[in-house]
Amino acid sequence: MAGKVTLYMFTGSTPSITAQLMPEHKQIDYKRVHMLVGPHAFSMLGRGFQLMNVPALKIDGRRVQGSRQISRALEELQPQPPLFGADEHQRRAVAQAARWGEEFQDAVRRIFWCAARRNPRAMMTVHPHANPLMRPAQHVTRRLVTRLATAGHQASDFAGEEDLAELPAAQLARRLLPEGSVQIGAALPAKWLAAVGSSPSHGPDGTRYGPSP
Q: What is the pTM for the complete model shown?
């Protein structure tokens, strides 16, 4: 029997969406708490979490943060249906994909904050608070949040241009979350966009993305 489960997240966060899909897959009843991007960092510490980041999960009195840690906690809470597959080979493959996705997400964040620096409205497009009444506060703080996030994620122009050139195909994401597709390309330099897909990238199983040789 699952305990009281609360998920702390914010709209537009890929790891938050991943964490949201997990209890839904397991048919676990849970409560979602939408945080305000930027101030969420201090709020998480005030709620007793060790780190500032979301997604974060509270199961009764237990607190866990990060999509991979959340997946393990939910497996312990309710083993069926499993998140990692029925046999050892499947579990290893899913765990490897999760590690790869977590590393790749850092590149996506850097690209986004490079775009947000050039177009402050990008943050409101990607991360609108679920409660419309909170959006004016986001509008006021978006430039400061963008500067802090740029520093925190080391989202320099050099890193963003390099990440974009190595960006793998996005067909899977569009198939899974078609409503989550957001266009921010117009905010990025044309030179960066011209290089999209010019360098191949590889998935967790060695699959090659990008142009054919």
A: 0.67
